[in-house]
Amino acid sequence: MSRKTWAAVDDYIVDSLFAADPALDAVLAANTEQGPPAIDVSPAQGKMLSLLARIQGAKKILEIGTLGGYSTIWMARALPAGGKIVTLELDPHHAKVARSNFERAGVSARVDLRLGPALQSLVALGAENAGPFDLVFIDADKPNNPNYLSWAMRLSRPGTVIVCDNVIRDGAVLEEDGHDANVEGARAAFSFIGSDKRLDGTAIQTVGAKGYDGFAIAIVN
Fold this sequence. Notes:
By secondary structure, the chain is an alpha/beta fold. It has a single domain, classed as Rossmann fold. 45% of the residues lie in helices and 20% in strands. It has eight helices and seven strands. It has helices at 3-17, 22-34, 43-56, 70-77, 92-105, 118-127, 145-154, 181-195; strands at 60-64, 84-89, 111-115, 135-138, 161-165, 199-208, 211-220. A seven-stranded mixed beta sheet has the order 3-2-1-4-5-7-6, with helices on both faces. Helix 2 packs antiparallel against helix 5 and helix 6 (118-127) packs parallel to helix 7 (145-154).
């Protein structure tokens, strides 16, 4: 099986299960035109995050890593009236593109975008007693996965769902003695979830338009 086949199956999933969505199509086009790297979640993955939020009944969501806001929009759409997603972004240009995309998708009122280093923003959220969040999605710089997971725990409650993206990395997560900081971050996410007795987790390997990767998913006991 090839990446071409995986991408074709992703297209089939979208064509078969999703209604036409010009707003989200425009968001992806804007991201391509305005420069954020093409590392958004796929449409199928975005829909998965949306369904997880709905299954969870999430009213408060924390996203670490906004990029152009594509995944943010999927989750924001799943929120009930009065719900809010706080999303953290380091890069001012990415944040500017994301804000424009939130307007385009009609979700700006549900989104609180915090600009700056995520760890600083997380400290601020802690000081504000902003938690607990019902769903936390971690998709930022991978070496900081343990720090982000630690903050996710501080800002959670029993029943909070935590999702960490890009933890398989084409299978490189198996490399115990590698020198890739992103792989080390993925392995650190597994170590954190596996060793923290407050968490019950698993991982899902994925193939598709984004290649071979996966998510770690855990619930706070």
